[in-house]
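User: Sequence recovery, please. Input:
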C-alpha cells in the first residue's frame, strides 16, 4: 500500500466563479480592476482550500509481473510440433464421416496430447517423445489422410473398401500402442514410488507401527 494525495478541485472552481461573478457586475477597463479581481479570486481559493482540503488515500501497489518461466528449446520444439500434428488430426476428425473412426481419433488425440505434454514434466522422456513424434504420430496421420481421401470418393470399390477396412482395424491397435507409450513414460516415476513405499514400509515395521500397532512404545526396563 502507498499513500496518494488527492487534490480537491473545489478551490479552483471557487476562484473561477469569483472571477466570473466580478466580471458580470464590475468593468475591467483599469489595472486596479484586475488587481481587485485577482485578490477576490485568491481569497475564494484560500477559503475553499480550508473548507475542502486535499485528501490522503492509500492505494494498492500494482502487482509485479511474474517472471517469465524459461522454456527449454527442445521442449518448446516438441510442443510446437505436437500442436501442429493435433490440429491436423482435428481437421481429419471433422472431415471423416465414420463415427467409430472419429471416436478412435479422439482417443488417439487425447493420448497424444498427454504424451507430448509430458516433455514439460520430465526432460528424461524427451528422446522417447521425439521418436513418437518422428514416426508413430506422422504414420498415424498419414493413414488417416489416406482414409479421408478414399472416403471422399463415395464408392465402395475393392481397393478403396479393403484399404479403409484395414485402416479401421489398425486404429484399435494404435490406441493400445499409444496407451502403452504413455504408460512407459511413467516407468521411472513408478520405480521411484515403489522404492519410497518399500523404505516407508520398512520404517513402519521397525517402529512397530504396521498392522494396527499404534500403541505407546514400551519403556526399557518396564515389566
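Assistant: Recovered sequence (223 residues):
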Amino acid at each position: 500500500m502507498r499513500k496518494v494525495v488527492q487534490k480537491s478541485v473545489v478551490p479552483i472552481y471557487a476562484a473561477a466563479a469569483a472571477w466570473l461573478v466580478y466580471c458580470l457586475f464590475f468593468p475591467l477597463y483599469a489595472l486596479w480592476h484586475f488587481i481587485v479581481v485577482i485578490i477576490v479570486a485568491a481569497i475564494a481559493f484560500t477559503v475553499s482550500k480550508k473548507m475542502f482540503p486535499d485528501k490522503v488515500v492509500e492505494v494498492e501497489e500494482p502487482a509485479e509481473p511474474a517472471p517469465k518461466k524459461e522454456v527449454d528449446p527442445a521442449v518448446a520444439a516438441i510442443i510446437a510440433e505436437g500442436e501442429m500434428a493435433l490440429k491436423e488430426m482435428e481437421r481429419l476428425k471433422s472431415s471423416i464421416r465414420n463415427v467409430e473412426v472419429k471416436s478412435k481419433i479422439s482417443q488417439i488425440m487425447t493420448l497424444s496430447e498427454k504424451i507430448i505434454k509430458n516433455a514439460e514434466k520430465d526432460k528424461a522422456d524427451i528422446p522417447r517423445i521425439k521418436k513418437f513424434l518422428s514416426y508413430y504420430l506422422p504414420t498415424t496421420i498419414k493413414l488417416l489422410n489416406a482414409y479421408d481421401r478414399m472416403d471422399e470418393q463415395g464408392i465402395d470399390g475393392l481397393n478403396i473398401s479393403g484399404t479403409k477396412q484395414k485402416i479401421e482395424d489398425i486404429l484399435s491397435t494404435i490406441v493400445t500402442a499409444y496407451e502403452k507409450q504413455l504408460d512407459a513414460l511413467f516407468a521411472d516415476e513408478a520405480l521411484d514410488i515403489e522404492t519410497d513405499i518399500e523404505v516407508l514400509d520398512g520404517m513402519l515395521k521397525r517402529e512397530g507401527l504396521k498392522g494396527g500397532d499404534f500403541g505407546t512404545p514400551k519403556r526399557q526396563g518396564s515389566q
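The longest strand covers residues 2-6.
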